[in-house]
Structure prediction request, 790 residues.
Amino acid sequence: MTEITVRGLVGDKDVAISTGKLAGMASGSVTVQTGETDVLVTATANPSLREGIDFFPLTVDVEERMYAAGKIPGSFFRREGRASEQAILACRLIDRPLRPSFADGFRCETQIVSTVLSVDGENPYDIISLNGASAALTISGIPFQGPVGAVRLALSDGNWIVDPTFQELESAVFELVVAGRRNEHGEVDIMMVEAGSTPEGLRLIAGGQPSSDEETVARGLEESKSYIAQIIDLQRELADRVQIPVREWPTVEDFSDELYQRVEAAARPRLTDVITIPGKQERGAAEDAAFEQVLAELGIDDPEEQLSAQRAFKKISKGMMRERVVNEGVRLDGRGPKDIREISAEVGVVPRTHGSGLFQRGETQVLNLSTLGMLKMEQMLDTLALEDSKRYMHHYNFPPFSTGEAGFMRGPKRREIGHGALAEKAVLPVVPSEDEFPYALRLVSEVLSSNGSTSMASVCASSLSLMDAGVPIMEPVAGIAMGLVSQDGKFVTLTDIIGAEDALGDMDFKVAGTAEIITALQLDTKIQGLPSEVLTGALDQAKEARLYILEKMKETLPGPRVELNQWAPRIEAIRIPKDKIGEIIGPKGKNIRELEETTGASIEIEEEGAEGIVRIGSPDGESLAFAKEKVMQLAFPPEAEVGKEYAGEVVNITKFGAFINILPGRDGLLHISKIDSERRVERVEDYFNLGDQVKVVVREIDRMGKVNLDLAEKVEPSEAALQRSASGGGDPDRDRGRDRGGRDRDRRSRDRGRDRDRGRDHDRAADSEKSGRRVVSFEEEFEKTLKSND
Prediction:
């Protein structure tokens, strides 16, 4: 097949879509390129139905290939393993607008695979993959009611930038991903929104940039439509140039019209009272009982017909619930459209954890627990993203008992990863920066009971948990889930939807933020032609609910605790000159090991430009202060004062004197001539051993900064030295009368002493080279000083 390529501008970005060259056996195959980011997307459907299937089996896979960025995978096997979190989130982003766009009754197993071939470090691949998936389906012959177009916008200095690069996103306060398709009138209907504040968004707003409030976000949604139309038109141009295969696809009919009418006549009278039961489990049990009565009344015994009757029954129940909301303004649990379920909030509910928050809204209950650690505990990333680590992590767990069911628990599923990422995105903008708060943070949301919007409950519980731990977040964040029911041109927006309302409604709309700023937003619609004013009204209604929830949270804990939780580690960062890093590490890491052993603190060091950053972590403030003092002394050693007395330690002995450590990082020389004023000193070792404690006085500090010392207290020689002196070892006449052999022995002894000293200096120099620290021989420096003085 000849390769066919279409090109066009989306905003100011050139987009190229090609087909006919790669993956010819797939039902539909395209490559999409923006900049030098290139993605191959295939769409394939099995021609036959799986027996007994009652759902649409659509699978989306994103394959991140490390060769795309010129990398070799970092795993032990040096090949790609399971999908990264970034890839899973991209899968969900693609799935959400495509799944409702297939023909009714189409249930053939369908798979979309996006293989990332190249990334340029500027253009994200997720939007490219989504548009490629729509294009591949459009030319495949699969019954897809597209095309669907998607675009990313970034809010920077009050303006929306189309398809921003990674670099442009860094200076933006908010990013907005919008997907949509044309309706029968040729206008673009929004189908999916994924948005949130950037990690630095709130700090940029505090610095003067316009904020991401409800009005600004609504304007961004409207601006996105023209760009979505451009990418849809580009896909249509490709479809017009391709011979799309035509084939008959099997479809599934859930029930016949005749069966539906029979079930409706029997079910409606029974469901009138059932749909007024507020409790989730009680209502479910009443529905099951009503359905059994309907089957008995209609005499349906065949298992397949029972399954069809059940589908009809669910549709009738859903329709009656929707009618009640639209016509009476009364919801399943008796609330009005804007009413919020009863809210409770607690902190400090779990002992020994660094922070904990329990948030409950109606039957939805989430417990969040915070853990603080040193930055070396941040998560390492081996993906195609520019980031190679992240310090703020939020993990979301949804066990089967939370819905009153039994099931397998085998690690997080895609849904759990997606919900955790949404809550992480919502709270991250208020987390203090690494410089302000040098901690790695891991938050875990345990869903204990679920009946609607556990992800937004996780946002609320996260804020409570962080404040309980004493993390100085900028502001608390709350979230709310909104719904929509439309019928006969009427639209009713629902606040704080429960699980059943999510299933029966036409929109799932989650909004999280502070009192003034939206930090995360997620929207999925199931209908066409949603008016802009309905979306804008939903945003305003969500803000009212968010402010109400924030007030409830503040009643429990108005703000972050002044002190960190007693069980949280104390961490402090110290900036030091880069050339002092070696002083702190010491030869072969000696100094840093001694610091950790003596203080009980953990110490990590990294370079940042012309500075070094020393981070000290400790389980208590006392050991932190002790370790900090020691580090400061090594990095910024105190200056000796002339005439002041110091208690020092002998750290080196040479033939011309002893070097004594008087301050951290500061040694002085006690010359051999200053050791004993009453007798001649032949050997320094006769008076001192390494490690001896001695009191000295600073006599002078020369122009080179070298410290010369005098003894503050007289030191007596050793007994061996005194005996040697008494036996005539120090008699000058005897010295003159020694034979040649004696002089040779003395010379050899002196040579051996010099060799030992030189060997010691050589070892110290070798150690210094290994540790990155340059250690100067005190003998060499002293002899140089003597020569310069001469």
